[in-house]
């Protein structure tokens, strides 16, 4: 569980399209890192929301948009939680491959690193 961030770090979490950050990492993002209730996508405060609840095709698109954003912001370090593996119901083996092309400033959770390393 991430409770603090260093300078220039951004907490990346799974959300729903409506931005109802009521539990899990989304609640942490809301309480600690500047996520905004009602905003389910993108960078707010020291957090970045990725919609994981609107189907896998949407999740794929959201990850592509996030990776582009991260590449455009090399001054930031993005700490990714195991998005999609909680209430959204996906397995790390499904979500991790979406991050294979992540830029160096994206830090993946151990679960995703293990899957990517095994491929």
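^ structure tokens above, recovered residues below v
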């Amino acid at each position: 569980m991430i409770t603090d961030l260093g300078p220039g770090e951004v907490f990346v979490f799974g959300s729903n399209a409506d931005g109802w950050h009521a539990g899990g990492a989304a609640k942490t993002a809301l309480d600690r890192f500047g996520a905004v209730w009602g905003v389910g996508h993108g960078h707010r405060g020291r957090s970045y929301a990725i919609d994981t609840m609107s189907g896998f095709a949407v999740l794929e698109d959201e990850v592509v948009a996030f990776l582009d954003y991260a590449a455009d912001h090399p001054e930031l370090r993005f700490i990714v939680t195991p998005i999609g593996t909680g209430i959204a119901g996906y397995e790390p083996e499904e979500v991790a491959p979406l991050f294979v092309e992540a830029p160096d400033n994206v830090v993946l959770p151990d679960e995703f690193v293990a899957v990517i390393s095994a491929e």
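The domain at 9-118 is CATH 3.40.220.10 (Leucine Aminopeptidase, subunit E; domain 1).
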